[in-house]
Amino acid sequence: MLSAKSLFTEILDNDESFRLFCSIAASGESQGGWENARIAALVPESQRELAPKITRHGADEDKHGRIFNALLKKRGLEPCEIPHETDYTMLLEKNGIGLAHEQLKGDQPLGEQDIITYLAHSRVTEQRASEQMDMLRKYFGDHPDIGRAVKMISKDEDNHLAYCHEELLRFAYAGHGRDIQRILRECAQAEIRIYRDVSLAVMDHMGRILGWPKAKAGTLAAGIHAVHAYERAGGWRRMVSLKMPERRDALGGPAASAPEFA
Questions:
Q1: pLDDT confidence of 1, banded at 50, 70, 90?
Q2: Quick one: CA dihedral 120, 134, 13, 226, positive or negative?
Q3: What totals of helices (H) and strands (E) does the chain contain, helices first?
Q4: What is the 8-class DSSP label of residue 109?
Q5: Above 60 in pLDDT, residue 143?
């Protein structure tokens, strides 16, 4: 029976598919770390109290990248160059989601609207990350090789999502609610399309590595399209709602160190 657990087990058990999986994950996390570091450096004076939290967010993402690279090293594998069509983070940026890298490479301080855009983008993408890591934690939290990594990253992603909710609500209470909802909707509508395209590309590459028959590859592609149809019909709304999280000030401290994978 084809299930999420059996699919990921197959990917994790093969060195080449595991290499691609970890390389894609490490690349995206490292890119997120760079983006957050630049945003923290360019925070406007009116929002300077956010800088340590944005820095913590970036440090967590950097840590996740190191964890995925350490998992590769533990299996005697080197990171591989990832196909352009599987680069979720870069495709989001190229489609105008979040802050442009050209802007982040400069020295001009960001405006308050830029910070709202960053938080709204993060709220959408961290929803996706939190859900994905929750699934991996459910199925592989006790896995001897990746269990500790999955649990740590999952906890971090939940903290990132809580932070986005809390900070966006703070801006909403300050009178930015309409702008926030508009940006969230735009981000979510674009993200679900890019996530579909990236998922199809990743599964295509995995299928070629693992030698999946056409029927299996077709079933997986149909499943990805079905998820997108659900999200386009209304599932995207879970990415734009805001509520005060149970854990307040989730990024109000230093990032935890990465575990060792000897």
A1: low
A2: negative
A3: 9, 0
A4: P
A5: yes
Cα–Cα dist 115/118, whole Å: 5
CA pair distance 132, 192, nearest whole angstrom? 14
Report the distance separating Cα 75 and Cα 19, nearest Å.
9
Distance, in Å, from the CA atom of 56 to the CA atom of 23, rounded to the nearest integer, reads 23
- Give which of 91, 98, 93 is closest to 116, Cα–Cα: 98
Residue with token string 């196909």:
83
Residue with tokens 């995995």: 206
How do residues 54-85 score in pLDDT, each as one tens digit?
A: 999 999 999 999 999 999 999 999 999 999 99
- Measured CA to CA in angstroms, residue 218 lies from 113, 213, 215, 253 at distances of 43, 9, 5, 46
Report pLDDT for 262: 47
- In Å, how far from its chain's centre is CA 46? 27
Residues 91 and 197: beta-carbon distance below 8 Å = yes
What are φ and ψ of residue 258, in 5° steps?
-75, 145
pLDDT at residue 168, as a whole number = 98
Per-residue pLDDT at 3: 87
Q: What is the mean pLDDT of residues 217-225?
A: 97
Position 44 confidence tier, pLDDT thresholds 50, 70, 90: very high
* DSSP H or E segment with residue 91: helix 88-94
Burial class for 79, CB neighbours closer than 10 Å (0-12, 13-18, 19+): middle
Please give the Cα distance from 31 to 34 (Å, whole number): 5
- What does the block give as tokens for 92? 């989001």
